[in-house]
């Protein structure tokens, strides 16, 4: 434990038991992965594509499309590599190396990437292409619901603060270090890296199928939903160790 960890533990002692922390974490991890994949698959099932994915998901799927031709089995690996890069960025933003947080970011990516690949294979196989206006509307609702699940999952495991997805750790660092606790402002600022990735992916392979209405919805509302979730979903669960 480094000096910063010692300081954090003295000032912000954790009140959750390990069992409770793990329960919240596992639940939020599953719904986050499912929500991410819902946004990708619903976007792919509408022709011509106009829906798009959640913001980080759109960028990652765009990179997967540009490099691996959209191979669903590679999507988890793309998420993993991008996550490692963001974990390194977080070290610089924090201004010090916290080994527990850094390797926690990396550890998060292992089950998360596996769940992404798992849900991607299932949803891709059971969800048919949209053939009607009604099916398209249903997929739009599912896409927005996927973004809602992501935002709620972020709210839960950010408050647990056991281990975080690197992108959500980035948002949390920005939220409490630079934006006075504002989830919406921090989320918008955290979207700078995926915006850069998306531009690079489009230059490599000009495909816009992962960007659209859902991406705009995520940009506008995901941070706000996360802030709402802090108060409305498990309201007795408070931020631990921030």
Structural description of this entry:
- The chain has 242 residues and is mostly helical.
- The protein has 10 helices and no strands.
- The chain has helices at residues 3-11, 18-44, 55-68, 75-94, 99-126, 133-160, 166-177, 183-190, 192-204, 213-232.
- The longest helix has 28 residues, at 99-126.
- Residues 1-11 have low confidence and may be disordered.
- This is Fructose permease.
- The chain crosses the membrane at residues 21-41, 74-93, 105-127, 133-157, 186-205.
- Keywords: Membrane, Transmembrane, Transmembrane helix.
| Overall average pLDDT | 88
Q: Please give the largest β-sheet.
A: none
* Percentage of residues in strands: under 5%
Number of helices: 10
What class, by secondary structure content?
Answer: mainly alpha
- Assign a percent range to the helix content: over 70%
Radius of gyration: 18 Å
SSE inventory with pairings:
Blueprint: H1 3-11, H2 18-44, H3 55-68, H4 75-94, H5 99-126, H6 133-160, H7 166-177, H8 183-190, H9 192-204, H10 213-232
Protein name: Fructose permease
InterPro entries: YczE/YyaS-like
Keywords: Membrane, Transmembrane, Transmembrane helix
